[in-house]
Amino acid sequence: MIWLAGNRPNLNGVASLSLQDPSNQPLNGRVRFDNVSLRRGGTAVFEGLSLDLPEQRIGIIGNNGSGKSSLLRLINGLLLPDGGSVTVCGYDTKAHRRELPRLVGFLFQNAEHQILFPTAGEEIAFGLREAGTDARNAEKKAAGILAANGCSDWLHRPVQELSDGQKQRLCIFAIMAMQPQILLLDEPFASLDLPTRKAISKQILSAPQQVIMASHDFDLLARFERIIWLDGGRVVADGAAGRILADYRRSVLGESELADVS
Ligand SMILES: Nc1ncnc2c1ncn2[C@@H]1O[C@H](COP(=O)(O)OP(=O)(O)O)[C@@H](O)[C@H]1O
Ligand SMILES: [Mg+2]
Predict the structure, then answer these.
(1) 42 CB within 6 A, ligand 1
(2) What's this model's pTM, rounded to 2 decimal places?
(3) CA distance 221 to 227
(4) Which fold has domain 11-261?
(5) Relative to the CA of 66, which ligand 1 atom is closest?
(6) In what order do the strands lie in the sheet with 31-40?
(7) Which of 50, 148, 238, 259 is the most buried (most CB within 10 A)?
């Protein structure tokens, strides 16, 4: 799978950005949570959460309401911490919120909330223009991106004619066109059929960006370097995929049911 024909994100940029820490502090990762507290609607979601997130692919698991979406939204600046700090490529999200859209691409759970334009070509071209491509080249490049991913026929098609999975894929193309350093994916497989899941999984595994993904797709997460398991806003387990996924399964299903499904 080719991500973006002739338009792969500049990985040198990733390396050099990670060295540009405005506070001149040494960086342990592209994303760092330092003693973060967050309240939402009167509920304490996080208290004293500290995390360094340097790995290329990180999965976030946990039951509904455990804080997965809140964690991702703290990274893209949609939420700001009430206490402590979140740092992205060296930029404190509170002090440098305007830097975040160019660093972080966020895939919403529902593609309908993301798509702004009437056709797939226009949606991708917008991302390209945001990343600095002029309008005429943006259109050409958008067509190239769709062609490279076997979706040439989407170029002028009304977005509303695409299926949910196709819309989700379109959102990924548009985000990638903006060449972010980090991809944040919030349960990207909700309501997708198997072939679309497969296509998106492939794209996630071949993306040159850092990927931080909330998901319960264990087959895909098994190939990630690190899994963080949240429960009630706390990290209950954090480490290599094999061990954490097995522990989570055991905890949710119980030993006997696990034997039944295996
Ligand atoms: N818009 C909101 N307003 C108030 N509280 C919210 C909102 N969204 C989520 N929460 C609360 O924040 C906590 C974490 O939710 P969330 O991050 O959405 O968890 P997850 O993504 O793991 O399901 C939950 O207690 C939830 O009720
Ligand atoms: Mg969520």
Answers:
(1) no
(2) 0.84
(3) 8
(4) Rossmann fold (3.40.50)
(5) 22
(6) 43-53, 31-40, 83-88, 91-92
(7) 148
